[in-house]
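From the pipeline queue, job 12 of 40. The input is one protein chain; the requested action is below.

Action: predict structure.
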Amino acid sequence: MRTRLTIPLLLTVLLAAPAAGQVRLVGRVIDDTSERPLGYAQVTLTTHDGRVLQRTETDAVGEFAFDVKDRISAVRLQVRRLSYTPSTTPVLHFDDHKFFQLEVRLDPDAILLAPLEVVAWSKVEPSPFLENFKQRVETGNGYYITRADVEARRPMYTTDLLRDVPGLSVIGSGSGLHPVVSVSGRSTTTQMGGSCPTQIWIDGFLLNRRTIGGGGPTMDFRIDDAVSPGSIEGIEVYRGLSSVPAEFLNEDARCGVIAIWTRRGGRVGRQPPP
């Protein structure tokens, strides 16, 4: 930090002489880096031991003035301005002088502000996918599991939600750790891995499209590997071709359809906390 003080003495005959018993003190405050004058800086006149005598502010061009009365022989100036390092001048001894002119330079000082976090909440727009799901819950011919059902049952696996669906059987994989799903018709039971697999849709995408290999259609897909109960907004189950909505129809829809809607896939925007 640098504080440079310039006090050129001027002949009193060049300016109007101050009143008897007074010393005229004028000055200017400037930016020590840019050399520009600093308006609206606070200037405090004190005695040499710190007693406040007067206060003023610099004008638009950085100038200020004091008339020092009572035969005070020595003073200091304290200068402050926002975003600058405060400065205190050395003691000014008047002796027999009646006029002082000085210049005070202030060093810029960056102000560290506390981190500011701005959180903007956008309006939650209803998803057209979930709107269609809600409409089918009211008017459709399938079996439906809602978010309220998920929260009430608190299952460990997604397939736990499907165990009580009429006409639907949950069977284990080879290790028994990853269940797979089959849909039972009126007279036959079709299991995944057979010739007509249950169709699994998640957020409008068919995930287990049939592949041809090993002499016939095969399927290897586990629901619990793809979605967890905590992320589910709703589930639709259709057992027969006549009940399957048009958006899920394909050549294997006759073997049953399970459509899962996730909370991430069904919402747009963020909802503010209550």
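Job complete. The chain has a mean pLDDT of 77.
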